[in-house]
Amino acid sequence: MIYVALLRGINVGGNNKIDMKQLKAAFEHAGMQHVVTYINTGNIIFKNQELNKDELSALLEKTILEHFGLSIKVLIRSMDEYRKVIDSLPETWTNDQTMKSDVLFLWDDIDEEAVLDKLDIRPEYDRVIYAPGAVLWSVDRENAAKSGMHKIIGTKIYSRVTVRNVNTTRKIFELMQAAAANA
């Protein structure tokens, strides 16, 4: 089965630095196959037939701790789970000069539509959609400072999500599709 591991909080602001070639090697050492990394923020596509998501997450967190001395949370999504997020993502949403659009991937313990009630959503600026496994959030750049999106930082929920912009989210899915075609 094809999975993506979304690492939380690596190579951000000069903290928790991990080299992607070394990370790839560590994943392979842990038994993952067809490992591909995408950009420096911890997106790793791989194949594994033996373990379930919880087992993969625990194994990869342990692997990162052993190889890099860092306690990093690892969120695992199967290709089918990831596809549900992609299918919910409006095609018109971009991350460019005019629009900021992010995907907040949710840990399982907060993965429910009711999570929206705990967010500071400002309907006059924010476009927010719950999809199984994620919250999709978009705001026009001119209104970014008025958005509730930045209010999530430092909250209890923020510690249970890992964020990718929509461009990265879409590219990861392309890489997952390519891995599935080549596996």
UniProtKB/TrEMBL annotation:
Pfam families linked: DUF1697 (PF08002)
Coiled coil residues, start to end: none
Cross-referenced PANTHER family: BLL4334 PROTEIN (PTHR36439), DUF1697 DOMAIN-CONTAINING PROTEIN (PTHR36439:SF1)
The protein's name in its UniProt record: DUF1697 domain-containing protein
The organism of origin for this protein: Paenibacillus nanensis
